[in-house]
Amino acid sequence: MIDTIKWIDGAGTAKAMILDQTRLPHDISYIECTDYRQVVDCIKYLAIRGAPAIGIAAAMGIALAADAISAADAMEFSAKLRPAIDALLNSRPTAVNIQWAAERIERLIENNKTMPISALKEMIAKEGVLILNEDIEINKAIGRYGAEFIKDGDTVLTHCNAGALATGGYGTATAPIRMAIEQGKRISVIADETRPILQGARLTAWELMQDNIPVTLIPDNAAGELMRRGEIDLCIVGTDRTVRNGDVANKIGTYSVAVLAKENNIPFYVAAPLSSIDFTLSSGSEIPIEERPSHEVTNVFGRCEIAPKGVAVRNIAFDVTPAKYITLILTEKGAFKPEAIHTLDPKGNK
Ligand code: MRU
């Protein structure tokens, strides 16, 4: 599978290479980032997107910022790093992974504050690569737990792209599918196209076809009819932020899929690495939901205007699916009922 993001090491010459997902499926090209501000732009303009992938990009962005700092001690170093961390935190609000990655690096600095600055810089760069590599292993663990719920011959509906491209590799929602196929089960996927910017059509369909996984693309509004006809056995989606009561924020349209699944007695699973779970929020109503520019709705990928000039637009990028619609949340620690997800809180708050 193609790399979503790569780190090229070197004191003073380090780079993060970001696959430009705005150009997929037509072109495979990388954006070379030598400055954290370029990483911020890549996240804002969706060259890299998907919750775990933007967490990894943020860690690498912090490493690039760190590399450019001169400081006498860790306190000065942390203070000089702050603007970069804040810019990354403000780049996209809904996925908690950027905050998760930033906090991980802040803890690393705090725990090593007596080290020379050059050693701190090296540690931060290594942490970015570690987050990337760990992410792939986490997704495989999600896959092992999730594959149990997929039977030979099943058709799985997914929404948006929570695949390899949205992560360090292997994907979250696609992990149980990939694992079930590795176990010899015959599985096919229905991919919602995912308006307005078509991550399902451009990214999910593409990455599954690259790996010879049978995939059929549908307009978002066809999902209900396919469910009613009995052509979908289960749904698996990813998440940008899951909270203590099991409510899940994910790409706009996920809530509709979940309600339709419940109406049609179809299990609805959410693949959620711990890095996407926000144990500080108690309900989905507290999740910040990103609203994006109107041109994403009125233009098809900047190429063709499809609406009258000046029309009013709402472009809500994510929605919240209440826990009651979710069968199980699949994590790297196992499968959990949504109401039990808070028991995974690493701080032990129950
Ligand atoms: O706006 P995007 O493309 O970043 O939205 C991505 C999604 O909603 C994914 O489903 C989510 O980030 C989970 S990725 C494993």
Automatic annotation (TrEMBL):
<keyword id="KW-0028">Amino-acid biosynthesis</keyword>
<feature type="binding site">
    <location>
        <position position="92"/>
    </location>
    <ligand>
        <name>substrate</name>
    </ligand>
</feature>
<keyword id="KW-0486">Methionine biosynthesis</keyword>
<feature type="active site" description="Proton donor">
    <location>
        <position position="240"/>
    </location>
</feature>
<comment type="function">
    <text>Catalyzes the interconversion of methylthioribose-1-phosphate (MTR-1-P) into methylthioribulose-1-phosphate (MTRu-1-P).</text>
</comment>
<feature type="binding site">
    <location>
        <begin position="49"/>
        <end position="51"/>
    </location>
    <ligand>
        <name>substrate</name>
    </ligand>
</feature>
<dbReference type="InterPro" id="IPR027363">
    <property type="entry name" value="M1Pi_N"/>
</dbReference>
<dbReference type="InterPro" id="IPR005251">
    <property type="entry name" value="IF-M1Pi"/>
</dbReference>
<feature type="site" description="Transition state stabilizer">
    <location>
        <position position="160"/>
    </location>
</feature>
<dbReference type="InterPro" id="IPR042529">
    <property type="entry name" value="IF_2B-like_C"/>
</dbReference>
<comment type="similarity">
    <text>Belongs to the EIF-2B alpha/beta/delta subunits family. MtnA subfamily.</text>
</comment>
<feature type="binding site">
    <location>
        <position position="199"/>
    </location>
    <ligand>
        <name>substrate</name>
    </ligand>
</feature>
<dbReference type="Pfam" id="PF01008">
    <property type="entry name" value="IF-2B"/>
</dbReference>
<comment type="pathway">
    <text>Amino-acid biosynthesis; L-methionine biosynthesis via salvage pathway; L-methionine from S-methyl-5-thio-alpha-D-ribose 1-phosphate: step 1/6.</text>
</comment>
<keyword id="KW-0413">Isomerase</keyword>
<feature type="binding site">
    <location>
        <begin position="250"/>
        <end position="251"/>
    </location>
    <ligand>
        <name>substrate</name>
    </ligand>
</feature>
<dbReference type="InterPro" id="IPR011559">
    <property type="entry name" value="Initiation_fac_2B_a/b/d"/>
</dbReference>
<dbReference type="InterPro" id="IPR037171">
    <property type="entry name" value="NagB/RpiA_transferase-like"/>
</dbReference>
<dbReference type="GO" id="GO:0046523">
    <property type="term" value="F:S-methyl-5-thioribose-1-phosphate isomerase activity"/>
</dbReference>
<protein>
    <recommendedName>
        <fullName>Methylthioribose-1-phosphate isomerase</fullName>
        <ecNumber>5.3.1.23</ecNumber>
    </recommendedName>
</protein>
<dbReference type="InterPro" id="IPR000649">
    <property type="entry name" value="IF-2B-related"/>
</dbReference>
